[in-house]
Automatic annotation (TrEMBL):
Domain Calcineurin-like phosphoesterase span(s) in chain numbering: 7-80
GO CC annotation terms, alphabetical: outer membrane-bounded periplasmic space
Example GO BP: nucleotide catabolic process
Organism: Escherichia coli DORA_A_5_14_21
Name of this chain's protein: 2',3'-cyclic-nucleotide 2'-phosphodiesterase/3'-nucleotidase
SUPFAM superfamilies for this protein: Metallo-dependent phosphatases
Gene Ontology molecular function, alphabetical: hydrolase activity
Matching InterPro entries: 5_nucleotidase/apyrase, Calcineurin-like_PHP, Metallo-depent_PP-like
Lineage: Bacteria, Pseudomonadati, Pseudomonadota, Gammaproteobacteria, Enterobacterales
Length: 138
């Protein structure tokens, strides 16, 4: 997350730049689609929170799920598991399907204690791959 510049500034200052996770995905997904990407999977070192959006947020995954063109999200930061009952109260979270706002998403715990699986069923009827069904589990 962008907070890395605070946590490890001594080692990263002048060598690394950070940008807002959500705005970066919002910028590049359309570009990736225009350049021919049929399926876009976001990998984010971020957590899940439905707190109101703010720039440079540490836990941005909920807002990534609202960006058109994102087909799946694999994430981790909070050392938690999604889908799980711990996140059942988040609007748009379907724990049975492992989706956020209809986008399959998985956070596989910590230190290898879970395996995250995103299962995308694809079709290529129009010459481009499209996700027809999806689910995620950890």
């Amino acid at each position: 997350p962008p907070q890395i510049m605070g946590w490890d500034k001594a080692n990263l200052s002048g060598k690394v730049t950070v940008n807002d996770i959500t705005e970066t995905v919002r910028k590049y997904v359309p570009e990736m689609r225009e350049k021919g990407a049929d399926v876009v999977v976001v990998l984010a070192h971020s957590g899940l929170s439905a707190d109101p959006y703010k720039m440079m947020a540490e836990n941005s995954v909920y807002y990534l799920s609202e960006i058109p063109g994102v087909d799946a999200i694999m994430f981790g930061h909070a050392h938690a598991v999604f889908p799980s009952k711990d996140f059942a109260d988040i609007e748009g979270a379907d724990i049975a399907k492992g989706t956020l706002n209809g986008v399959p998403a998985v956070m596989p715990g910590m230190w290898g204690d879970h395996l995250g699986v995103v299962d995308l069923q694809l079709s290529n009827d129009s010459g481009k791959w499209q996700v027809t069904q999806a689910k995620a589990e950890a």
